[in-house]
Amino acid sequence: MKRMTDAEVASKLAGMADWSLRDGKLHREYKFPDFRHAIEFMMASVPGIDKINHHPEWANVYNRVTVDLVTHDAGGLTSRDFELAALLEEVARREFGVA
Question: Could you give the CA distance from residue 5 to residue 85 in angstroms, rounded to a whole number?
Fold first, then answer.
């Protein structure tokens, strides 16, 4: 997997509200009504994550899920990170009404 240039990352990131670049990783924090919804979001994302075989760095604290994406093998961001971000956005929107 080819590492994206800074210009490519900036271009892709420009169209992704709620995502930012933090410490060289795509970063987003999702907020849900409660702990159950946060965990259900994580579990609902697992089939798609396994399908693309690219796994997030994520953590849950009560009603929040913090996500950081990077392709370690490439030493930075690749198209796979943006694909995974899109998958998570779709699950959050479709299953949980998170915009």
Answer: 18
Prediction pTM value: 0.95
Domains held by the chain: number: 1
Is residue 44 in some structural domain? yes
For the segment 18-42, the average pLDDT, to the nearest whole number, is: 97
- Which residue segment(s) compose the domain that 74 sits in? 6-96
pLDDT recorded at residue 37: 96
Residue 88 lies in a domain: yes
Q: How far apart are the first and last CA of the chain?
A: 30
Tell me the β-bridge partners of 22.
25
* Residue 42 neighbours by CB distance under 10 Å: 19
Instruction: Tell me, yes or no, whether 1 lies in a domain.
Output: no
In angstroms, the Cα distances linking 38 to 11, 42, 44, 76, 88 are: 29, 7, 10, 27, 12
Check residue 82 and give its pLDDT. 97
